[in-house]
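Cont'd.
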Amino acid sequence: MAVEAGRSSSPSTFFEEVIANTPGGEALRLCLQCGTCGGSCPSGDDMDHTPRQIFAMVQANMKDRVLRSNTPWYCVSCYYCVERCPQEIPITDLMYTLKRMAIAEGLYADSDAPDWSQTFIGMVEQFGRSYELGLATRYHLTHHPLGKIGLGSFALDMLRRDRLALTPSPIKSIGQLRTILNKAKELEGAR
Amino acid sequence: MRYAYYPGCSLERSAASYHVSAMAVADKLGLVFQELEDWNCCGATEYFAINKLAAYSLVARNLALVPKDLSELAAPCSACYVNLKKTNKHMVKYPRLAEQINQALMAGGLGYNPGRVQVRHLLDIIVNDVGYETIEQSVVKPLRGLRVAPYYGCLIVRPGNGFDNAEYPMSMDRLLRALGAEVVDYPLKAQCCGGHMTQISDKVAYELIRRLLQNAAEYHADLIACTCPMCQLNLDAYQGNVNRHFGTDYRIPILYFTQLMALAFGLSAKEAGLGSEIVSAQPALAKIDVDMPKQEEEKKAKPRASKEALPMPAMPDEEA
Amino acid sequence: MMSVKIGVYVCHCGTNIAGKVDVEEVACWAANLPNVVVSRDYKFMCSSLGQELIENDIKEKGLDRIVVASCSPHMHERTFRGACSRAGLNPYLYEMANIREHDSWIHEDRQAATEKAKALVSAAVHRVVYQEPLEPMKAKINPATLVVGGGVAGIQAALEIAEAGYHVYLVEREPSIGGHMAQLDKTFPTLDCSACILTPKMFDAGNHRNITLLSYSEVESVDGYVGNFSVTIRKKARYLKEELCTGCGVCSEKCPKRVIDDVFEAGLGYRKAIYRPFPQAVPKYPVIDVKNCIYFERGKCKACQMFCPTGAIDFDQKDEMVTVEVGNVILATGYDLSDPRQIPQYGYGRLANVFTSLEFERLVNAAGPTSGKIVLRDGVTTPQSVAIVHCVGSRDKNYHEYCSKICCMYSLKFAHLLHERLPEAEVYNFYIDMRTPGKGYEEFYHRLLHEGTHFVRGRVAEITDAARQPGEEGKLIVQAEDTLVGSQRRIPVDMVILSPAIQARHDAPEFAHLFGISCSHDDWFIEKHPKLDPVATMTDGIFIAGCAQGPKDIPDSVVQGAAAAARVLGLITQGEVELEPVRAIINEEYCSGCRICNNMCPYSAIDFIEALGVSRVNPALCKGCGTCVAACPSGVITGAHFTNDQIMAEIEGILVSVAA
């Protein structure tokens, strides 16, 4: 039975809110804290909390700690957890929900990752396609530019091999795309 | 066989070699790929972090752009593939979500009937619609002597219900074998390359990349074949940084499986999109330019079991 | 319609019904229904006082129809039928209206619930007028019993019945009885040697004067009904004459063809093409594996025949079909171990030193392929570190959602055996929960804690040979989140033992169909009631026992075997059994012989009488489901106790009440 996210009755707790905002999120109620997600995560070692711990905290409605954790931002979307979870919980999608909530509440501690995503979609909304050079320059110049010396050589390599476009290539119907996205944001905000 | 084609942003420039080689191979195999008119970025792994409905709608616009006379959409990039497939699947599974997405699309004069289009990865189309036999027959320059590590990455096989096993896929292994290459049994074949982690945390990203390179080197692979522009970028363009960070000296070229197919089909280096790799493929590919003495049928090398050894359970025949 | 005198009794059931339904009002209202002579309400109709109310009214007021509005027939139909019988009224002149499960328990609105109760009572009152007195059929019980499956549950059942003095046919698919228990080394929590406690029972079962052992045999077809089953069994050819075979074993010794034994040795050892599955096999006769025998392949060899001192080998032997007549059947066919090759991230089949639990049992067994030496797949190296992985394919929606019940305990057992045989080895158990509910089980767990086992609470994510850092090279790395510590751990070991889920036999559904019973979603045989009747099935005369009914350990298998035997003995001593008269009857005068009903019957209860060109229902097999009644295009099949008149009247009763 496919359970829908986003019901009309507003969720009463943080746990309910997370579930309501994730397609298939109801399955989170079945979490047995087995640890398979934490065990499978390639970036698990570097997270403040393992994915499993995050869900324990979500179930305990520890909103502040969860949204301040760097865990969702270190999720690489590899879906190992989703594939192996014995309760078929849509873990990666839950991580996306936590990312969105962290941004909405301004609670994320790691300032880099959300900004990266924001900058990326800024490019997409401007041009309809991703524009790597623009993305990279805008992002890296505002986030410890000196620490990213390594990327300089990377950029040079890419330019030399003609793998980096110097100018963006916008789509024709960018207006149509923006209309669609705005409508979507309106609908999302109304919930 | 005609398919709608969604190249994705990377194939325009940073992964142009994937596009070039894919088209050359498609031509050889009689596959027709019709690029979607004015497609937009799929949002990669970024948009869902910001706004759920907008992210779905961004992808759905592309599904809506698939011409009415085509029902299959080919995506060569694994991230685009997952986004398209997931959006499609969720629209079928969650009618209310589909309703909202269509409302957004309608504002732009578009609409999409959930599930009308079948989203397929380029690898899926090649191994399943064309078939290993046809591929083998099209080989004029077998890649004999080339040890290839087949690297699938994560998004091509996960989340599951795809066309290959989510933990231990074999379709590219078999494809490469059909091209005559010696395929390395690469245990990390479906591990994640880190995706966009290079922009978030060097430490995490480089470690993920290092693991893959280390494992391939341990198995003496001449090169790594991949199916996704992100993986190629991470393993190739950042290999230098990884070496500097860890003090290692990996020099493993990273090529797309379509490039190897193009070479095996006797196409030129240009048609195979060679030359844009950061880590040069020249030394590895030199192996197959040499006139190798024809070796007898490479039997899957089984270590000779000693008298005391206990029997192993049989695995499904990989040569089948 | 002849006039009848109906008594209506509306039960309060404490507050279960009265809490929602105004039972007094219903009883009052019902008094005005046609043919109703008396209408009462009472607190607990099923109590002896409640039943006496009915009995007295029947005797004093001459009632000839009874309606009780209370709970579900599953609960108390028998109770009230009993009350009628005691008062001299045919029990089938009684009808029940369920105003609890169908009304008070599922509705919120008191007024609506009361109106519904009235409608249900009205329906029953209208229906009962058309009910006829029926007599149950009696079937004699054949005192012989068939037990299918020679594992510990089947052996126990067979011995109990045989000891009571009745005959048992024990059928076993493999060449020897013993089942999975015969493969085990030690059993938890007592650490009894499995073969030592099982073989005496095996011997008894094989030699009991009341047991006919049909080993290397399979059931082909089943006919009949409770008390009177006719079962055809295929005795597969062993290719030797049992009367001449002394069990000396020379044939196996001389046989040149060695193959992997993937049944008894779990694929870890070898056997010959002519073989006895294990030394204590019962019966002792070997068997020729036709698929691997050189003679059957290409007509050469015949070494066994040449060397057999008694000339017992007979290559021309054929399968023999045997038909037995029995009164009851006990199905104790056991389980299969699931295949962890389906779970690629655990590496079984690719990584040499990953073993399954059954493989390890054979490894550690003194009579096993390594004579009990714990070694790696190379047959030589002793492991210095071993990981035992719980919950492989169990408690997992991707494979089996259920818990396999026995693995925590046998995983602890393995840890103990490792500590015993390899005192220097490090042993790790990776688990989600530690399930040790039985007698002495928790204490066994404590013993393992004493012995220095490393317990990691975390479901293993993957097992790999891809080393990341120096200490991991050449090892198998078990990666899991240690949830109690809160971080991911990679633990390098030499050997990994997986505890895979146990699952129903691969052919369980087809097998169940032979006997007319059903399987659950997970293919375990379905019991009559999961709490109160775990060894009976919905098919009278067919009982189930052991793991075939669901995962369980040896004590519980033995208990179920004995329980099934007790039920069978109960029926045998009664000598005959009553069959419900609720069944279909075909009017042969009007039957056109179209035979549509024949294949529709889920109980295969309809025979076609060639001579008369009509179909006929076997009343003993018929369960009164009504499928044929509905399917008959000529409408000539009647469902006794569910006739068209009765059903129409019931519908009318509702409509009349609603319209009022």
